[in-house]
Design goal:
Order of helices and strands: HEEHEEHHEEHEEHHEHEHH
Strand order of the largest sheet: 1-2-3-5-7-10
Mean pLDDT: 82
Number of strands: 10
Largest sheet: 6 strands, mixed
Low-confidence stretches: 1-16
Number of helices: 10
Structural class: alpha/beta
Distance between the termini: 37 Å
Length: 230
C-alpha cells in the first residue's frame, strides 16, 4: 500500500500543493518553514530516529510537498543532537526473512526523496548509521556536526547495506574506504568524513542546523529564477 501511495509518476512532483507544517500532519517528522527553506526533522527520539515504514511514508510526503511548494527553494533534513538516524528499525525487521526484505523491496520507497528537484541538505548530528547513513547520502550534500558518527555496521548483523549504501558510499569516498566501512562496520567521525569527501563541512553541534538553513537560503538566492517563486 505504501509503495502504491508514494511511487507516483514523476509528473505528480510538479502538482501545486503546499508544505503542511502542522504538528498533527505527520507521526514521525516535524516540519517548519524558515523563509524559503523547509526544515524537516526526524522525530523518533526513543528509537534514535530509526527508520520504519511510517518514517518513510512521512518523510516522502514532507519532501515531495516541499518540492511542490513554490515558496520553498531548498530542503534541510536533520534529526536530533543525539542521532540523525541510527539505522533501520530492527524491531520491524526482526520477524522478516531475507526473501521478505529483498523481494518486497523493504526500503525501496525511501529512494523517492531523490526525485525532488530542489536541493536537499543533510544536517547530521550524532549517529548516522546503516540506513541513516544511506539516507544522508541520498541528499545532495552533507553538513556534519562535530560529534557526528557515520557508519555502515550491517555486517555485524550478517547482512550488507540494502538502501544504496554500497553504491553511494563508493562514489563518495572511493572503493577501498567504502569496502573497509562495509566489511568491518567501523565508524568514522565528522572530521574524517569531511577529509574523505563524505561531508562537505563540519560545524559545532549547536550551529549545524542554522548553517544548513543558511546554505539553503543561499541556494534560493543563486537559483531564484528556477526554483523559487518570484
Amino acid at each position: 500500500m505504501i509503495r502504491n501511495l508514494l511511487s507516483k509518476p514523476v509528473r505528480n512532483l510538479n502538482k501545486v500543493r503546499f508544505l503542511n507544517c502542522e504538528a498533527s500532519a505527520y507521526e514521525t517528522v516535524l516540519v517548519e518553514k524558515r523563509e524559503k527553506v523547509a526544515l524537516i526533522q526526524l522525530n523518533r527520539p526513543k528509537a534514535l530516529n530509526s527508520i520504519n515504514q511510517q518514517v518513510i511514508e512521512d518523510l516522502n510526503k514532507a519532501v515531495l510537498d516541499a518540492n511542490a511548494d513554490n515558496d520553498i527553494g531548498a530542503i534541510v533534513l536533520t534529526g536530533s543532537n543525539r542521532a540523525f538516524a541510527a539505522g533501520a528499525d530492527i524491531k520491524m525487521m526482526e520477524p522478516l526473512s531475507f526473501s521478505d526484505t529483498y523481494m518486497g523491496g523493504l526500503f525501496n520507497d525511501l529512494e523517492n526523496i531523490t526525485k525532488a528537484k530542489k536541493p536537499i541538505i543533510a544536517a547530521v548530528n550524532g549517529f548516522a548509521l546503516g540506513g541513516g547513513c544511506e539516507l544522508a547520502m541520498m541528499c545532495d550534500f552533507i553538513y556534519a556536526g562535530e560529534k557526528a558518527k557515520f557508519g555502515q555496521p550491517e555486517i555485524t548483523l550478517g547482512v550488507l547495506p540494502g538502501a544504496g549504501g554500497t553504491q553511494r558510499l563508493t562514489r563518495s569516498v572511493g572503493k577501498s574506504k567504502a569496502m573497509e566501512m562495509c566489511l568491518t562496520g567501523n565508524f568514522i567521525d565528522a572530521q574524517e568524513a569531511k577529509q574523505i569527501g563524505l561531508a562537505a563541512q563540519v560545524f559545532p553541534v549547536d550551529e549545524l542546523v542554522d548553517q544548513a538553513v543558511a546554505a539553503g537560503q543561499k541556494n534560493c538566492i543563486v537559483f531564484q529564477g528556477c526554483c523559487c517563486s518570484e
